[in-house]
């Protein structure tokens, strides 16, 4: 029975666009893109959702905590689930927050570090080999109730897709530019609305089918 692991941040977790800071909400399983993609893959697939709001590819967050560093989270996820057949990786939105001061190249380097973990001998041997689909998130819009955390982030996030694509090609893995499929919500400029989740789910399922 094939196993799908979706690893990412709040947009993998299913956080809807933020209206009021501090309120916690999550889209239901009928709405979230990982569960919808899982259903679109057809019967027989298993799914583990590993989306953590605030997660970065490489940074310990001084506000949200050290556990936001995706390097630790990825190791935990890969040692907790499986055997994994396909893993999606979609991170980078939080890495462009103002407080990290990361350039597009630095953000991409963080993704490269995660791929080193996922594609390394230890994890590949543990799971009997698995494929990776790297997803570049759509660009950030600097608006809404959390815009102050993303000053200067729009331009950085717009530069990520070609860097991610080149990285995916170099590592021989799948790639999906989510920015060609969806846009972030104008409510907060970071998260996806219900229609975007549906569209992304279809794109991810199609990319996975093409890989296998």
UniProtKB/TrEMBL annotation:
Gene Ontology MF annotations: hydrolase activity, acting on ester bonds
Question: What InterPro entries has UniProt attached to this entry?
Answer: SGNH_hydro, SGNH_hydro_sf
Query: Pfam families this protein is in?
Result: Lipase_GDSL_2
Source domain of life is Bacteria
| Chain ranges of the SGNH hydrolase-type esterase domain | 7-186
Q: What is this protein called?
A: Lipolytic enzyme, G-D-S-L
**Which organism does this record belong to?**
Fertoeibacter niger
């Amino acid at each position: 029975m094939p196993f799908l692991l979706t690893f990412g941040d709040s947009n993998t977790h299913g956080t809807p666009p933020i209206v009021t800071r501090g309120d916690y909400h999550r889209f239901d399983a009928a709405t979230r893109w990982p569960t919808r993609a899982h259903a679109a893959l057809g019967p027989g697939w298993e799914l583990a959702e590993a989306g953590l709001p605030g997660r970065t590819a490489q940074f310990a967050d001084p506000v949200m905590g050290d556990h936001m560093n995706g390097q630790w989270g990825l190791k935990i996820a890969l040692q907790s689930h499986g055997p994994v057949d396909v893993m999606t990786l979609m991170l980078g939105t939080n890495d462009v927050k103002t407080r990290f001061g990361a350039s597009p190249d630095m953000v991409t380097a963080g993704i490269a570090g995660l791929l080193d973990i996922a594609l390394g001998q230890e994890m590949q041997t543990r799971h009997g080999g698995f494929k990776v689909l790297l997803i570049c998130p759509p660009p950030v819009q600097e608006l809404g109730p959390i815009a102050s955390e993303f000053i200067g982030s729009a331009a950085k996030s717009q530069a990520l897709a070609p860097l991610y694509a080149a990285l995916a090609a170099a590592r021989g893995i799948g790639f999906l530019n989510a920015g060609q499929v969806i846009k972030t919500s104008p409510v907060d400029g970071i998260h996806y609305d219900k229609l975007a989740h549906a569209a992304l789910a279809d794109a991810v399922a199609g990319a996975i089918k093409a890989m296998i």
